[in-house]
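Input/output pair, single chain:
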Amino acid sequence: MQMNDTIVHVQDLCKFFRTFKRREGVLGAVKDLFVREQRLVKAVDHVSFDIARGEMVGYIGPNGAGKSTTIKMLTGILVPTEGEVQVNNFVPHRDRKHYTRSIGVVFGQRTQLWWDIAVIESFKLLRRIYDVSERDFDARMALFNDILRLNDFLHTPVRKLSLGERMRCDLAASLLHNPPLLFLDEPTIGLDVVAKESIREFLKTINPEFQTTILLTTHDLADIEELCRRIMIIDQGKILFDGSLEEIKRRLGKINQITLYLKDRSEQAKIAALNASLALLAQTLSAGAAKQMSANGLHLEQIDDLKCRIVYDRRLIPTEEILRQIVNSLEVRDILIEEESIEEIVKKIYTEGREAFVGERA
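Output:
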C-alpha cells in the first residue's frame, strides 16, 4: 500500500479557552457581576503532525489532555485559536459543508442513526444524503454484513439495539459513502470481548481494502496494539510522543520480568543461592548502575512452591546474564520472559509527562 501523500496536515495548532473563576456565596456572585477573575486554558498548545493516506494512527492521552479538542478542530466542529490545519485539501471549519462529505466520524457515546426507525431505513436515508449509487450501496452493505453481521438486526429500531450492535451499525453508517478519512473516538467503549474483536477485524479489512485513513482515540490500549503501527501521545495540550509502538517500547520499556517454574519442590532450597548470585551480579556493575538497580527493584519474588519471579532493568543488566545465573543455580520446568506491557509504559508517561523521557537510554 502506497502512503506517500499527506491527508492530514497540522502545524502549530492551538485552541485556547477563557474561563471565569466563580466566587462562593451570594456576596461572591455579586462581585462576579462587576469583576471576574479570568483564566486562560490551553486545551491544545502548538500541536504539529502529518498523517499519510492509508495510515491507522492511535491518538491517546489522559482525560483532559486535549484529544477531543483536537478531533473537534480536525472535523470542523471547533475553530482553532491559532495554527494551520488542512485535511484532505480542506480547511475543516472554513469548508465544513463540503468537507463533511469527505470524512466519516464515530463517537462512542453518540449515534448518527435515527433512534425510532429501523437500521436499514437509516442507511437508506444516509445513502441519499451522501448521494451513494444503489450499486455502490449494495456492494458496501454486502461487505459490511460479511464482517459485522448486520442482517440480524437491519430491521430493528435503533433504540432496541444493544451497545455492540449499535456500534457496528454506526461504523457501517460512517463508511457508506467511502470517505478517505475516518475519525473514531472510543469506538469500543463498553463493549464485550466478542464485539471488540468484530470491530477490530472490520477496521483491519476496511483500511487496506479502501485505503481508508483512520485516526483512533481510545483508552483501550489493546485497540492500539491490534490496529495501529503509529501512536501519538498528548498531555496538557502538547504532543509528548509521536512514533511507533516498537520505538516507545524500546525507549521506555525498561523493566522486564522472568517467571520461573521449578522442576519440583526440592528446588526451593536453591532459591536463596540464586538470590545471592543475582546480588553478586548487580555488584559487578558500576556503583551508579548498581544503585539504580537496587532502586528499580532487581529482586526475586517467590509466588508459590513451584513458581518465582525476577524483576529487573534490562538496560542495566542483560537478560542472558540472568538466565545464566538461573541455569547454574537450579533446575526449572519452564521459563517465561516478559517485557513491560504497553499499558504500564503509557501509564508511566501519563504519570510523569515529559519527565518519563528524561535520561532514557537505549
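The chain has two domains: 6-250, 254-339. The first strand starts at residue 6 and ends at 21.
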